[in-house]
């Protein structure tokens, strides 16, 4: 496994976990490479994958570093590859050789239509959380900038008053001869 980095393997396992048919949400802090795997049982199932990096724990600044997500099939062939992204969503159809009854196909279509609605709701909620954090940080910066500018304006006014008084005191002192 020298050709594969630990990060790639870990993210491929993460992707496979996200490919589970029932909807599942996982929240974790990644400070190293993680690997996940899951078997998908039915041919033709559409697997939906999404991720959003909501908050990066960097105390000094906001970081735009994303994650790498690699999806592989059981034979090791790469299905999807996302590199250095803070958010992404995609879907693909599972390819597996098995026979299904038409009834299962119709049920799967109905189930997928309902799942798509839940998937979009989850995606929009995660994006909203991410934007709320960004807006809060930008608002805090704007308030700090306004306070700094106000303090600088007051300091400049005080210096001007001092210099004008000093100027007039000297002029009055020299003209009284």
Descriptive keywords:
alpha+beta; two-stranded antiparallel sheet; two-stranded antiparallel ribbon; 4 strands; 49% helix; 16% strand; 177 residues; elongated
Notes on the structure:
The chain is of the alpha+beta class. The chain has a domain at 6-99. Helix content is 49%, strand content 16%. The protein contains 2 helices and 4 strands. It has helices spanning 6-18, 102-175, and strands spanning 46-52, 67-72, 78-85, 87-93. It has a two-stranded antiparallel sheet with strand order 1-4. The longest helix has 74 residues, at 102-175. The relative contact order is 0.12. The mean pLDDT is 76. InterPro entries: Emp24-like (IPR015720), GOLD_dom (IPR009038). Residues 1-25 form the signal peptide. It is found in: Membrane. Residues 25-169 form the GOLD domain. Its main location: membrane.
